[in-house]
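Budget justification aside, the reviewers requested a transparent look at the raw inputs and outputs of the sequence design task funded under Objective 1. We therefore reproduce one unedited record. The lines immediately below are the structure tokens for a 284-residue chain.
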């Protein structure tokens, strides 16, 4: 009886969580946000406002904060301020955060101190100074930090590097200090094979989980395409739109099946990932 009650409570909690997520997703979409499932399941999400949601303000972040399994958030070019970042405190699963070209300053960065899973943080062209970097010292998993066109100094960067020695901090390029060097021939990039819809070789019916990898999708068509991941049950899930001539960097796993479709969602072809980072060229 106790086991049954525990099972019913678990199912009830899962249902409530899914309902809360769906309510938040609908609100995010109304604000112009793009909500995408993250590979791996477990109701993990990626949310992007940089395309159609640039009018997002601080109040709109309340709905974003309801997605507790949010792992990637792009707020680039939106109208948020430091005050709005208080809503991000509970997003403890967040690994990537884009704040570039927003009105965020030092007072906003203090709200990120508890995001200990954060690996990537972009603060390009914000109003931060060295004071902001002091609030990042406890983010032990942080791997990449971008501080172009800010008031961060070399001294501030050096102080943070002492606390996080494995962190890569990108301050920008001082053109006056560049020394011309002999250009080396670029190394060839591994390309995934394009499997056209209706072709002789068929893709697997579903993805199989494996090692983590990254794919760079390149759209050579003169029209936008839609990118779908074929999940572990064989169902397509929309991950984004790639404009004509544009590229998309996509986190994924080996043995994943990715479908390319036209704007009417008619399949054009497929890619199947391997273990190595690779390029997936969508032909004309």
């Amino acid at each position: 009886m106790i086991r049954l009650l525990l099972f019913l409570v678990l199912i009830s909690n899962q249902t409530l969580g899914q309902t809360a997520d769906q309510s938040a997703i609908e609100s995010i979409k109304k604000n112009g946000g793009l909500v995408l499932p993250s590979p791996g399941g477990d109701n993990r999400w990626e949310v992007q406002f940089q395309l159609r949601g640039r009018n997002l303000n601080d109040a709109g972040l309340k709905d974003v904060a309801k997605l507790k399994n949010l792992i990637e958030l792009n707020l680039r070019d939106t109208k948020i301020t430091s005050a709005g970042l208080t809503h991000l405190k509970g997003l403890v699963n967040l690994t990537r955060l884009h704040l570039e070209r927003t009105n965020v300053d030092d007072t906003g960065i203090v709200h990120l101190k508890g995001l200990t899973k954060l690996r990537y943080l972009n603060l390009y062209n914000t109003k931060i100074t060295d004071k902001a970097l002091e609030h990042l010292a406890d983010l032990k998993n942080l791997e990449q930090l971008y501080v172009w066109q800010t008031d961060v100094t070399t001294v501030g960067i050096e102080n943070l590097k002492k606390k996080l020695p494995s962190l890569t901090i990108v301050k920008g390029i001082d053109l006056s200090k560049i020394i011309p060097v002999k250009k080396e021939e670029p190394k060839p990039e591994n390309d995934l094979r394009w499997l056209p819809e209706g072709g002789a070789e068929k893709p697997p019916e579903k993805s199989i989980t494996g090692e983590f990898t990254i794919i760079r999708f390149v759209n050579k068509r003169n029209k936008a395409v839609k990118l779908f991941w074929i999940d572990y049950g064989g169902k397509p899930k929309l991950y984004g739109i790639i404009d004509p001539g544009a590229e998309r960097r996509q986190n994924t796993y080996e043995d994943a099946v990715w479908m390319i479709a036209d704007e009417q969602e008619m399949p054009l072809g497929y890619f199947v990932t391997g273990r190595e980072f690779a390029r997936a060229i969508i032909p004309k």
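The mean pLDDT is 87. DSSP finds five helices and 15 strands in the chain. Computational costs for records of this kind are itemized in the attached budget.
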